Amino acid sequence: MSFFELEPKLEEQTAPAPSLKDKIASFTTTRPRPSLNLAEVDAVAAPHGFSSREPVKPRMRRRLGAVDNEPTRHLAMRCRASVYERFLRFADREQLHYHDALERLLEIAEEG
């Protein structure tokens, strides 16, 4: 033992650190969270201005149409959710692809 007692006494020495294997084995499993009732969550969120992210109904898959030789351009726009849903309902009702539905609406607008 040194004069300043810097060396630990034999009984004060700590046990060796556990191995990585022992540390991993000591982890406990977690229980899965209970599932949320989405209707209740939406009911609580609606008065605060939040709308549900859950889809109203599954979207229909569309089959590919014939290839057109006319050049195409990309069109992206934002619109109100109600207008978007109306457009989708129109395209589904008429069984049109979105670009065909837009073309049909333009034809109707130009006629009237």
Give a description of the structure:
With 112 residues, the protein is mainly alpha-helical. It has a domain at 77-112. 38% of the residues lie in helices and 0% in strands. It has four helices and no strands. It has helices at residues 20-25, 38-45, 81-94, 98-111.
How large is the count of helical segments? 4
Radius of gyration: 33 Å
Mean pLDDT: 82
Tell me about the biggest sheet? none
Helix and strand succession?
HHHH
The strand count comes to 0
* Termini Cα gap: 104 Å
Oligomer: single chain
Contiguous uncertain segments of 5+ residues: none
Shape: elongated
Q: What is the strand content?
A: under 5%
Which structural class matches the secondary elements? Answer: mainly alpha
Portion of residues within helices: 25-40%
In brief:
The chain is 38% helix and 0% strand. With 112 residues, it is mostly helical.
